[in-house]
Amino acid sequence: MNSSIATPSTCGLLEVSGLSKSFGGVKAVDGFSFDAKPGEIVGIIGPNGAGKTTVFNLVTGVYTPDSGSVRLDGVELSGWRQDVIAREGIGRTFQNIRLFKGLSVLENVMTASDPYAPYNFLSAILSMPAKRAADRQATGQAREYLDLVGLGGMEEARPESLPYGLQRKLELARALAIRPKVILLDEPAAGLNPSEVREFIDLVRRLHERFNFTIVFIEHRMEVVMNLSHKLFVLSFGKLLASGEPEVVRRNPAVIEAYIGDEE
Amino acid sequence: MDYIYSILTLTGITMIGVMGTYMVTGLTGQFSFGQAAFMAVGGYVSAMLTLRFNLPFPVVVLAGSVAATLTGLLVGMPTIRLRRDYISLVTFGFGEAIISVLNNSAQLTGGAEGLVGIPKRVDLPLVAVSVVCCLFLVACYKNSKFGRQSLALRTDELAARSMGIDVNRMKLVTFLFASAITGYAGVLYAFYSQYLEPGYYNWTVSAEWLIIVFVGGINSLTGAMVSAVILTGLPELLRFASAWRILIYCIIVLLIINYRPNGIFGDWEISRLWKRRKAVQGGRA
Question: Is A57 within the bounds of a domain?
């Protein structure tokens, strides 16, 4: 398949250590560490309010950590601006889907390549050949990403008019299009029905095979967690509770207690 | 005939001013209550350069737009990081400050009595050509990476940042382009009306432009232009009901906002007709 979007990367090592963040007096994340090796699929699970999304927000620079470090392929990222971290190669999706409503489905994906588009202000306002060529190429690439997640043919639709499951896929396509080394998925299967969940698992597997990027995801659906992850980290009250292979973590008494409470 | 001519010319100039507001509000979602001040800067700078140094018209046109852009930089740099409600406050204050400066530096600007004796260099054909050219530039801007990134950050700044978009820079670039276009509208006005006074540029003008953009459809350049024509022409059409015309005008605006909260055109653009036709032809081929 001659495609312009395949980028099998050999990098994507994410190391997070001693990450802490307090809001007021509440320690949302407290000395949390995890790592994901290149090409690994890592799950982060934990009860509601454990601080999972906060961890994602700290890694992607939405919040600045109080302490701790976030390294991507050895480069320290903590304290950097959110958009710079994204351009370094960390893509993400959101728990509550955040698409650009003013743009078409295709344009949503195109925003990924826009920060790099090789034309300046003048060629933009005069619609010069360089601009048109660059936009044509960006359009072509965006279409490929849409085809990849199964949204081919819906380029001109408005994102808010898509059914929920497709909106999730669009958000995924948009995150893929920044060509991330590491992609963070925040509850990607939330709100999907059982058949959509199975389809989603297959889709992530396929994308992972194709792009070989590192995936870190937060999820409550055990089906997704057990099927996809190579490694699990359990977060409870901002702290690391357990980590390791999914089957082992699942049988860990401390994890079961955190989820369903003490039996006494 | 002269009367119609003058209304058409002023409508054209308003259309260009509205393009600036459309960019700031429609593309990046900021509220500028001082947009008319950029028109004042463009107008006064170009008029004063002509009166004092007798520079050729193309030079003062450029100077007026550049001055407005630089003013935009001065206002934009510190304010662009602020939340959108604060930006409205700052731009509002800035607009009134400009008027104050114009009023109080009477030796330079003629103060409240106005600046007189500006030669007539602008007529309807020039304004018409200007409208078409500016419209082309703004439409191209909207349809480029700049427009897409601006629209993206308008709906969701956080998600825009997560796509690698430098939100503050993009807001500033759009703001500056809008300042330049509005400044140009100011130059046209100065050399058409041959007379400038600070009172013409107060916040009510900026607010009127905002109303025009909202009525037309916040996300539609087509809508902004159509509504600029209708809403500038409307008070003239309603002249027969002189005492009532502001009231009627307000009621019409209220009705539109109430029954079409996204404006008359929503986010529809006239270019879609053309795109669809192309798609249909492509499908047949």
Answer: yes
